Amino acid sequence: MTAFLLRRLAAGALTLLAIATLCFAMTRLAPGSPFTSERTVHPEILRNFERHYGLDRPLPVQYARALWGYLRGDLGPSMWYRDLSCNDIVWPGFRNSLVLGLLGAVLAFLIGLPLGILAAAHQNRWPDHAAMTVSIVGICVPNFLLGPLLVLLFSTTLGWLPAGRWPEDWTRLSELRKLLLPALTLAMVHAAYISRLGRAGMLDVLLRDYIRTARAKGLPERTVFLKHALKNGITPVLSYAGPMIAYLVTGSIVVETVFALPGLGQHFVTSAVNRDMPLLMACVLVYSTVVIAMNLAVDALYGILDPRVRVS
Amino acid sequence: MNVSPPPSSRSPFQMALRRFARNRKALAAAALLGLLAAATLAVPWLTPLDYREMDWEYMGKPPNARYWMGTDPQGRDLLSRVFLGGRVSFAVGLLAAGASVLLGVAYGSVSAFAGGKTDLLMMRFVDVLYGLPYMLVVIIVMALLRSRSILLVFLVLGLFGWLTMARIVRGQVLSLREREFVEAARALGAGAPAILRRHILPNILGPVIVYATLSVPSFILQEAFLSFLGLGVSEPDPSWGKLISEGAAALGTERNTWWMVVFPGAALALTLFCLNAVGDGLRDAFDIQQRPA
Amino acid sequence: MRAERLVVATLLLAGCGRKLPPGPPAPPAEAARKLLAEAGFPEGKGFPRLTFLYNTADWHRRIAAAIQEMWRTRLGLRVDLENAEWKVYLDRVDAGDFHIARRAWIGEYADPHAFLALFHGDSGANSTGWRSPDFERLLDQADVETDPTRRLNALAAAERILLDEAPVAPVYHYMAHNYLKPFIRGVHPNVLDIHPLQGVTLEGEGAPPDGVLLFNAAEEPNSLDPALSHDIAGLKVLMHLFEGLVGWDPRDASPVPAAAERWEVSPDRKTYTFHLRPARWSNGDPVTAHDFVYAWRRVADPRTLSKYADRMFLVRSARAVRRGEAPPEALGVRAADDRTLVVELEHPAPYFLDLLRLNIFYPVHRATVERHGRDWTDLRNLVHNGPYRLTAMILNDRKVFEANPLYRAASEVRLRKFAFLSIRDDAAAWRIYNTGGCHWLFRAPPDAVDPQSPRPDHLKCPFNAVYYLAFNTRIRPLNDPRVRRALSLAIDRPKIARLVVKSGELPASRLVPPTAHPAPLPPSSLPE
Question: Which chain B residues contact residue C9 at CB under 8 A?
Fold first, then answer.
């Protein structure tokens, strides 16, 4: 088991290295520099700037220095925010995206699972159709439309929730609820997929032999459903959960823009726009680390549950 | 669930198609989809209004006898723009899905068939690409290539779309590779390409088609997302994503411009809904025979 | 590029819109068409397909689309639109990699020089590639002219040359818009749209119980270091944390004494002597003239990497110091004593006092900078002399300012606490403003406001800025001034100002906006 995990860990580290290299190459290739502005800057100043950030060294040297910094946990200075280091920028943003993303994940499950189970329990009758219709909304309405719609309803018209901005102290529940609308916007599409996967998974399991046996034994339908079918029925949902959580916690530029939230997502865009290369690299690395870590976690989970996977 | 005995003379593919044809909901969705696609081609051609022409006297106004879907804030007819935008969405969806199929099938089957170190390396590469934040790459690529052509949009979407397809195909080919009929073909002296072509590819067609169909909505949404960021099609061409994000930005202002949200939004939602229904129907049609005994 | 054009054409343009609807009759574009024909392109035939570059934003997209449409219907020209995000756009404009580009310029002072200096050969912001010795001669002449009327006339004559040769086509002059909740008092619209907040009060219905004003500053400054901050977002923050020699009158943004109590100007108008008021830094140290000298030398020093040090080039030897040809001590500023600052200029300039309000001229506490290096602007280290201090700074979220008890005029500061929010998206800011999460916006999304029904919370006034198109005069056919003038004449400016921008913007027949008090233009030397 340990060997398996170690192998996966090594693979993950190598992947991360490859990503860092690829990103490094891309950032050096993109036109425009952080120094571009409406007034042309004197070449001497540009040279000073490059010297200060080590951009005048040969590329392999820059690359090595950057990598060495990452290994020590130093993500480098930001070239755009002159007073801040990438650590100062990335970690608070990531923390906010994490909070919002987890909230969204919880909502996705809270909405999606019951819908899916309900639909499967009453297959082809009206609760099934109703639940699937609700889930269709999640798939067919893009989040940059859903967000403003939710604000229009719950904020502008009803005045129950704020239209945006990060709450002053999210650790208090009364403040955390202010994130309900953005979390819902994030969650809807995933709730839709979860409900569909859950429904399909449950329906699949309900055909299996051991369920028929349980029914034949005379167990009430509810017990059959909840105690025996549910465990296995929702495995497709669990395998969806891994990538979903990775995606949610690394920030959504749309939700952050629509609700004015200081997350990680907007740093992706602004660092690319500003050609702030260290910040760009830092964002990519955080994103990739989260994705790889979640994949690792899912693999580990499967490895525990299904020994056959370890051998492959 | 249909469990009719398969006639021995028909291929599994044809059987699946028949099953699909019996699924009324999926069939209706497919018909509606065809109708929508035809409309995007026909309507802009039929309408006497030009999608670029600005009517300075009727800017941002609701539907009337002349402008059936109203006008956008620059006085352009929304009806022509909605259907023209549909062309973009359909084109993007089809082309990106097509690209992902071609690339994904080729890559995945080669990787699975090669096996060993090559397979490992190829899948590692896929992992690396998976780990990249897609939107960031889009921005950089757009900036690098300095062009805002719609083909570039297809290209970039296809760049990421084939990853999951490759994984799926690889998985399927891996399981098929060990099956008896492949062993038999090999025993008979058939080379790898022939085996790929005649035995493997027809059998993976099902999942490939299903996944391709189900990926079209996500490509369409990705294009919408790019339009939201300002990276989609360039002026004056419309796309659903562009129209919807313009309409969404106007929500909550005092100007009630519901037509800017409702019409493109409904068009997009309807298309996505039909695509999902067709995809589900296809999955039901193909899946039955793929399920292990 | 060609193949893709074909695909796009087939996809999108095939069979699209055959008949033109009977819209309103367009005003005659005879003069423009005549010019175009004279230049060799009758009815637009043979005219190469040019590209109009703009930076990605809704406003610019609409204006570009409207102008594209005007050139198509009135001149028969097909121009492609291309948008690029900000950095790429600036890069390309800088490098001359464009045909026609959308540009704007905000004048830092209400003087024609702020706009015309852009097109002087030495300026780093002239992307058109156009130069005119006559133009430059007139600008240089205006610089040394002591009589204000003759000076303005020289500048107007220079502007005439610019408009005749048309390397740029002004489109409209901006309006400054502010949307304020009714309980905010003490905010006066002014042409620079700069609002010092010390005199603002919150009273009346709806005033927040915690007394904190929430202003959406939208953009994040790139630095809190007065030498490094290079944009208006930074200026708005720094003008509340620091105090320079000269400040803004809250009623009309005109220069008023701030850190300097009074000053004298030498007869040749090249030497200014400032007498400082007694004041303290936030750590108790006295503010002295040496702090100003240190700060200014630091800005000019090329090692500081100050991007906008060129605004200091009026000061003697600043250019040389910047290029590394002279040490920072050679800069034309010195402290005669602790409370007297003497500044020598390269040439007289009536707008020098206006420039002093920019953050590069603020004093800086030497000991703090030397001790902490790059970290000196951390909240726990920052030493400043302005009316407010920063008590919280959360990137992309908010900055909280509270009154600085050690400020020299602390008792006159009426607004005790306020916050700058960083809501970038205009639509989101609008929603948050309308639901009470924000009290003051300086921008609204397009179409948010109906010009037919003005809102009581909408304050607007002319803004010292111009929106124009730059032509790349290095490429054919834009090297021909007749072509450029034709393109400029074909733009229906009143229409754009009224219908596309829709918030009271003024169509521009000249580059310098009326807020900069230009003299009337002399008559054109060209046949009309």
Answer: none
| pLDDT above 90: percentage of residues in chain C | 60
Compute, in degrees rounded to 10, the torsion defined by CA atoms C298, C303, C307, C312: 40
The answer, yes or no, to whether residue C260 has pLDDT greater than 90, is: yes
- Per residue in C336-353, pLDDT (tens digit) is 999 999 999 998 888 899
Number of neighbours of residue B208 by Cβ within 10 angstroms: 20
CB B154, CB B226: distance < 8 Å = no
Which pLDDT tens digit goes with each residue over B15-70? 778 888 888 888 899 999 999 999 999 988 888 888 888 887 888 888 988 889 99
Span of A46-50, A104-108, B120-124, C186-190 with lowest mean pLDDT: A46-50
Residue C253 has a pLDDT of: 86
- Which two three-digit tokens encode residue C478? 């834009």
Angle at CA of residue A266, ends A265 and A270, nearest 5°: 130
DSSP C220: P
Q: Is C20 touching B (CB cutoff 8 A)?
A: yes
* C253, C176 Cβ separation under 8 angstroms: no
**CB-hemisphere CA count at 13 Å for B131?**
33
**8 A C-beta contact, residue C161 and residue C135:** yes
Q: Which residues pair with C506 in a beta bridge?
A: C173
Q: Which two tokens stand for residue A240?
A: 């969806």
CA closest to A44 among chain C residues: C323
ipTM of the complex as predicted? 0.85
Please state the pTM of the whole predicted model: 0.86
C17 vs B80: CB contact, 8 Å cut-off? yes
DSSP code for C328: G
**Res. B291: pLDDT tops 60:** no
Measured between beta carbons, the chain C residues lying within 8 angstroms of A260 are 421-425, 428-429, 432
What was the pLDDT predicted at B9? Answer: 53
Contacts of B54 in chain C (CB under 8 A): 65-66, 69
Q: Which residues of B touch C24 (CB under 8 A)?
A: 56-57
Considering only CB atoms, C499 lies closest to which of B59, B231, B254, namely B59
Instruction: Say how far apart CA A295 and CA B123 lie, in whole Å.
Output: 14
Question: Which range is least confidently modeled, A45-54, C122-131, C211-220, C336-345?
Answer: A45-54
> In the structure, what pLDDT confidence band is assigned to residue C4 with cuts at 50, 70 and 90?
very low
Instruction: Give the pLDDT confidence of A172-182 residue by residue, as tens digits.
Output: 888 888 999 99
Q: Is the pLDDT of residue C11 over 60?
A: no
Q: Which two tokens stand for residue C348?
A: 């007289």
In chain A, the residue whose alpha carbon lies closest to the alpha carbon of B120 is A11
Find which of B150, B231, B234 to mutate to test the C interface (most C CBs within 10 Å of its CB). Answer: B234
Q: Find the mean pLDDT for residues A175-202.
A: 90
Contacts by B256-262 with C-beta closer than 8 Å and gap 24+? B257/B60, B257/B62, B257/B70, B257/B73, B257/C447, B258/B62, B259/B62, B259/B63, B259/B69, B259/B70, B259/B78, B260/B70, B260/B72, B260/B78, B261/A145
Cβ neighbours of residue C2 closer than 8 Å, sequence gap 6 or more: none
Give the CA-trace dihedral at A14, A19, A22, A27, to 10 degrees.
-140
Rounded distance between C-alpha atoms, residue A81 and residue A87, angstroms: 12
Structure tokens at C336: 């005669």
Percent of chain C with pLDDT over 70: 94
Sign of CA dihedral C401, C403, C409, C414: positive
3-state secondary structure of C261: strand
Name which of C16, C430, C450 is nearest B50 (Cβ-Cβ): C16
Angle made by CA atoms B183, B185, B186, in degrees to the nearest 5:
65
CB-count exposure of residue C479 (10 Å: 0-12, 13-18, 19+)? middle
